[in-house]
Amino acid sequence: MKNNIRVERAVLKISQQELADRVGVSRQTINAIELEKYVPSALVVMKISYIFGKPVNKVFELEDKDW
Predict the structure, then answer these.
(1) For 2-61, what is each residue's pLDDT tens digit?
(2) Could you tell me the domains of the chain?
(3) 34-42: long-range contacts, CB 8 A cutoff, minimum separation 24
(4) pLDDT of residue 42
(5) Which of 43, 47, 41, 65 minimizes the C-alpha distance to 8?
């Protein structure tokens, strides 16, 4: 699953640690999600999208391999 978390963090000028604190996960989890090495739970996806003020499909995108 692709994402643009890094871009959205830059827009808000927040670090991985600050996003992690707001979401309630570790900085390592945010890093793994950004690198597309970890697929987050629906709850984490919703929280991240809410923090960025964007619909889920503007932050996360399914790829062909996800089907």
Answers:
(1) 999 999 999 999 999 999 999 999 999 999 999 999 999 999 999 999 999 999 999 999
(2) 2-56 (1.10.260.40)
(3) 34/3, 34/5, 34/6, 36/1, 36/2, 36/3, 39/1
(4) 98
(5) 47
